[in-house]
Amino acid sequence: MITCTFEHGSRADLRHVVVHAVVERDGALLLVKRAEHLSEGGKWGLPGGFLDRDERLVDGVLRELREETGWTGEVRALLRINSAVDWVPIDRLPPLNALAFDHGEAVARYLAARDRPAAAPSVE
After folding, report:
1. Are strands 24-25 and 32-33 parallel, antiparallel or unpaired?
2. In b/e form, how buried is each residue of 87-101, taking b as 16+ CB within 10 angstroms?
3. Whole-prediction pTM value?
């Protein structure tokens, strides 16, 4: 979990990376039923959760597997990294104020500086 302080002074603990374990044994997959009060409550899903700050992917997925199911395992392969990504041509970018968090500002700064010689990054 990462604690962030926003422009107006409020703080929030944010989680940025989610890991899931696909575990097969004897032709069956290990699934967990989500508690009714959670998002997507009552549905079956893969064991997993948020990666802790400074935690390696392998350690996080094994920790989540153990926490949610009591099972231990080994990571044999990385199956997927977020598939909701796309290469968007610069001339077809969405309005920068429609980007999440401060990403619009970061993209605007990049676009303003991209044709100039590299300079030391600004630290704010």
Report:
1. unpaired
2. eeeeeeeeeeeeeee
3. 0.57
Could you tell me which of 9, 6, 16, 89 has the C-alpha nearest to residue 52? 16
Which of helix, strand or coil describes residue 54?
Answer: coil
pLDDT digits (tens, 9 = 90+) for 39-73: 778 888 888 888 887 889 899 999 999 999 999 99
Q: What is the pLDDT of residues 7-28, one digit of tens each?
A: 678 887 765 678 889 888 888 8
Q: What gap in Å lies between CA 65 and CA 33, rounded to an integer?
A: 13
Domains in the chain (CATH in brackets) are 2-69 (3.90.79.10), 86-118 (no CATH)
33 forms beta bridges with: 44
How far apart CA 113 and CA 76 sit, in angstroms, is: 42
Q: Phi/psi of residue 50, each to 5°?
A: -85, 140
Q: Which long-range contacts (CB under 8 A, 24 or more apart) does 100-108 make?
A: none
Would you report the helix, strand and coil content of the chain in percent, each value rounded to 5?
25, 20, 60
On whether the CB atoms of residues 79 and 61 are closer than 8 A, the answer is no
